[in-house]
Amino acid sequence: MDRKVKEQKRHQQKHSGPKVEKKKLKRQGGSAEDDERKRNPKAFAVQSAVRMAKTFHRAQDIKTKKHHIPLVDRTPLEPPPVVIVVVGPPKVGKSTLIRCLIKNFTRQKLGDICGPVTVVSGKKRRLTFMECNNDINTMIDLAKVADLVLMLIDASFGFEMETFEFLNICQVHGFPRIMGVLTHLDSFKNNKTLRKTKKNLKHRFWTEVYQGAKLFYLSGMVYGEYQTQEVKNLGRFISVMKFRPLVWQTSHPYVLVDRMEDLTDPERFRTDPRCDRTVSLYGYLRGTHLKNKGQVHIPGVGDFEVADVNFLPDPCSLPDAQKKRALNEKERLLYAPMAGVGGVVYDKDAVYIDLPASHVKQQQEEVRPTTELVQSLIDTHATVDAKMAASEVSLFSGSATLDPADIDEQSEVKEEEQAWDPNTQRNRRKVVFAEKEEGSDVSGSSDEDEDDESDDGDQEEDEDEDNLSTFLKEARAKSDTSKKNVREPPQVKKQKLEERKEEIPVFADSEDELEMSEEEGEAGRPGDSGNCSEESDDDEEAEDDNDENSEDEVEFPRHNHNSAEFILLFLSTGALKWKDGLQQKASEAFLRQQEADPNLRKLVYGPVVEAENGAGEEEELGGLFRVSRPQNSKKVQANAFDCSRFHPDTSHNWDLEEMLNSIRDCFVTGKWEEGQDAATLLKEDEELYGDFEDMETGEVHKGQTGQQDPAEVGPVYLQNSENDDHDDEVEERLVKANDDEVQKKKRMEKKRRLKERFDAEYDDGDATYFDDLKEEMQKQAELNRAEFEDVDDGTRVQYEGFRPGMYVRLEIPSLPCEFVTNFDPHYPIILGGLSSSEGNIGYLQMRLKKHRWHNRILKTRDPLILSLGWRRFQTIPLYHIEDHNGRHRLLKYTPQHMHCGASIWGPVTPQGTGFLAVQSVAGTKANFRIAATGVILDLDKSVTVVKKLKLIGYPSKIFKNTCFVKGMFNTVLEVAKFEGASVRTVSGIRGQIKKALSTPPGAYRATFEDRLLMSDIVFLRSWYPVSVPQLYNPVTSLLLPVGQKDSWAGMRTLGQLKHDLGIRTKPNTDSLYKPVVRAQRRFNPLHIPKELQKALPFKSKPKQQQPKGKMPRDLQRPTVIREPQEKKVAALAAYQTQGVPAAEKKQEEAKLKRHKEARKKLYRVMGQMDQKRQRSSLKGAPQDD
Amino acid sequence: MASHGLAYDGCNFFRQRLVLSTLSGKRVKIKNIRSKDDDPGLRDFEASFIRLLDKVTNGSRIEINQTGTVLFYQPGLLSGGPVEHDCNTQRSIGYYLEALLMLAPFMKTPLRATLKGVTNDPLDPTVDLLKSTALPLMKTFGIDGEGFDLKVVKRGMAPGGGGEVVFTCPVRRTIRPVQLTDPGKIKRIRGVAYSVRVSPQMANRLVESTRSILNKFIPDIYIYTDHMKGANSGKSPGFGLTLVAETLNGSFLSAEMSSTPQGQGGPILPEDLGRNCAKMLLEEVYRGGCVDSSNQSLALLLMTLGQQDVSKVLLGPLSPYTIEFLRHIKDFFQTMFKIEVQKPSEDERKGGDKVLMTCVGVGYSNINKTIK
What we know:
The complex is a heterodimer. By secondary structure, chain A is of the alpha+beta class. In chain A, 37% of the residues lie in helices and 17% in strands. The radius of gyration of chain A is 47 Å and the shape is extended. Residues 357-376, 378-384, 386-577, 608-636 and 705-735 of chain A have low confidence and may be disordered. Chain B has helices at 14-24, 44-56, 93-103, 127-140, 201-214, 270-287, 296-304, 320-333, and strands at 6-9, 28-31, 57-58, 61-64, 71-74, 77-78, 80-86, 109-117, 149-154, 163-169, 179-180, 186-196, 221-228, 238-247, 252-258, 310-315, 338-342, 354-360. Chain B has a 4-stranded mixed β-sheet with strand order 1-2-5-4, with helices on one face. In chain B, strands 7-8-10-9 form a 4-stranded mixed β-sheet, covered by helices on one side. The chains are: A alpha+beta, B alpha+beta.
């Protein structure tokens, strides 16, 4: 680290001149004035301790809030391109924006944006743009891999649901950086409305993302593009942005595939068009280290085993470190194979040349400096056939020449491959290396057909190799002493060839690679009891092209990165210069290898493990016997005694003195290292702390710097008496009080040093736990970087896996054919790596909450599509809630606004992973598609969800508190299981099941806390375990035909099914709502006995309460019917007599009443006072309450 | 969901395979178990081991064919909790405990295993050895805290057994990476001399003879004598010695020996045993490294299961068991170790060659542990 920091030019401080004078003045005079605290101490005095405490707390709170848990920084030195996902509803300008940005970064125009587009944006950063369409599948997938989201919003329309859906998806799967971009701002004519809209949108956006989130404005279009300056600004923002590590992404390797090739044998899919395809997928590895032969999930397709991974040269590499600010034109690379850019593509076994009709050649040259190569390849075309016809290919002198049938087959293959045009509408031809057929590692190439030049080259090389082989044979014969690599002569020739094949590239490379090649060649045959073979181990078989020289192919995956260079070398030199002295080099390397010590690594992982068993001699003696050997001894070994004890080496005799001496230094009593030796440490200390001056006597004690008197030597020295080298050190006796000056200086110096040391130890006083943790992480990160830094990539990937930032090629052997036939580059293909146990399946328990914008609650056992981890799958959840006793009670529906538990059968995913649920991924029918969100809590192989079950019985016989209950169970056995269980009646009387009765079966005796009625119903509350339906149905949306990829439909819900089939359930008539008809209730008259009546007070006597009966007829008076005239008179009379005075009368009455009230009040108060007085006089003391 | 399985031949390294299978979630099939033997199939102790595995896991599927020569194991999830197991007396508890040590930190609930059987026999690492070396080793990996303990309740010698051990272990979500590159110098030697159903004097005689050898190196030696009586003494007589050398940097090297089981071979003098054991300790010191030779595999496993960081550990020469374990780790976790031999320099007197093992953890997280 320190070395990297460049030494800056020191500031030259002025020592004279007016400026210095000024400064000096300022320093002298200013010190008193400047310090306000000193000048005005009152203003800074503590006014309130409470307030001070508060401010302190607040400051601390803010400080701690800033802390995040420190994580080890695992970002690689050369990070993969940043994934920028451009999202937005349709017609908002996504493609236009990407096009503009690409133009901004690379000065190139891209027509159709298909698949990921990678560009170099600066000296240290590359960007991968990916457009996200409106399909929720795509949105989910891309949210998982995005580093930055450009969220396009049509300002003229406002927010659309897609935007919020995407935001919610992001929130669940870790929140990548999100930048809003407002487009269609030119549609606003009124400036004020524009401003207002901007503000509104901004604030809404802030509430979703975070306060102050960046929102970009693209004001308008110029010639169908956004304004250059605005795009440039956006680009700048992007290229300096920092990203936060997301948990899921940093713990899983993943590849956003930017290229796909079908490697299936053409013959196979000619015969069976629907056969499983072998496909190689390419892309930058992101996230974390990827192990070879791991498991990956391709969202939208399924889980697959990776047959092989290898890394390729970076197609869009960062510029070399140079001291300049901007990139030059050649460094502004653009890589987008799916969009048809990129000119020439080197694969491990082929070169693809892309000749798009629309592209100008110049441009290509700009992009790819290797165009000359292509040109030359095209030029050689003419001579191919003739030369090919002339050449008879024999691989090695010893081996048979390739028979015509073979060649025929190959040529057939070639034609197939030439004709092969994968569903991309591009004029694309595959150049097949001659090498592929010939099986040499070095290859010539041609544009269309076999290249005679390369064939010639091969021949030459074959001869070389022939010589080499004979030479090797000799060499082997000579160095017979070593054990490894000894192959029995009479073995099949082919195998020997293979062996040599593997070694050849090694000579050119390092030793490590050699090990690797050997190891890979011997894969599946590791060692003594190694007898292990992976079930899906035969990646090599998968690869070979059903021709005989399949072995030769085995080695390709390792050398692919070389092949391109080889070709270049080939063409530039014309001659095979690199082959000069090959033989010599090879022999040297071979001998070196033979003589080397048995490498421990090879011993453990490699093929030479037999050596350690002592069986090596046998092996050496006769390669002849080797074939039969493992059969015998292996079995014995395989069933050997399983013990971890490591029995001691018998060769060591611990009675001997030299053996004992050989471990002397392992003990504290032994000799110490130079730096840790107590004597030296003490001496150091002495130098530092040894001398002091006695202030009273003025005597100066000097620390011993050199020789000491034996008397002075402390006990520690005695112990280390063997360490007597200090005797012959500097002979310097101190001279007392000779020159005080020197002494003083020395003392000062020492004091200073002491203080420095003290400061270093104690002065970083703020070092908290947090700081320590951070430092620890920092150290670990440095170690991680440094550990494998100087190891070459081929070996390094074996130790730590493929590291993020590498351009990798993954081969997947058995993809469904629809993946290839229905391939649509607009849809992202993601390879999500799975850790070892994530491929399994089990029960998942999670916490779930219905999304508040989803307008329906969710029903238990309705299928739901979950996006969890990399996966999208349909499953059947059971919702439940935890009771206070820890029981998981089944719910029929999710609560409206509350979390509940959910149990599903699904893929094992680490706890704490977020998920989201949608009801269907087809179309955009729903208002808001995200139905629920949540988090995984627990994984298990069984569930504990129960539902309530009430068993009902009826009393058959009632004794006092005992009752016979029937109808709850069917057999005695059932009752026996429930003996002692508590039961209850509807009226709330509790009881207990005692014992079964013999008849009727299922009846039992129960006791209750009270006497039951025959009309009571007895019930037993119990809990019944529910099983979770085992449905795990991955959403295979990528396999659907082009154009229908957003129409995946899985299992339907019961409601949907009924709706679709037109089935209506007949409801239980009891549950139907009917108008409530209430019968008139009649009550019997209350009968009060005469005796009681007598005792009642008068007003309560029933006679008084009884309504007056009908007047007897004789008492009834006839009604007077007045004539109209009389009526008028009567009315007038009444008016005269009652009319006006009536009101007066009323007033008077009211007055009287008031008076009466007042008097009453008065009396009451007086009475109370009286009472009080009386009471107090009675009791003697005022003891009021 | 075709998580592919692995297939093996023969019953050797039986525990490794099942333990790694359980941790990685990969199913495993072991064929030809003693198929050529007169007594083919799984032995009782292996069956007992499978039963123990079944007790600590939930949802494991174990299929054994009629003759017991083929075993299919599909691992479930590690559940933990209180487990009681009667270990078969053909092997000592150490055999079972070694596997449990590897599994225990990754359970759903903290494990509390009560194992009954033979605590000490000459074949396997004894419980005393594991207690004094494996536990401190695991502590360096961050498996620490309350309830991390191994307690010998009763001591039972081979062949009768009758011992009892309680092992408790907390659960961890992740394992810390370690850098154990410097073992440091040995500062003290401790040990336990145990005797059951024989004269208590035996232990003292063991101590005496051991000290006679080790005193040449270091004075700080203390060997506890542990004589168990009555119900705690198991069913068979015997005695033995476990020695542990502790270094300044907190690594532990150990050696042990126990008397030959009753009725198997001739008697052994405690003096001889003590001396031999001391020599074995010297041998162990000669091998050196930060980890005891019988715990190499445990250390390597915990390194593999660590965070995605570089872990380093210095070991003595790799035992055959460890070498096989490395291969198995490669099968199950695709992790390879960088193996570097460190030769001692000329003037150093620190024993033989050491091996520096380096690896990058797989970023394993305990998927069994519940979060609330």
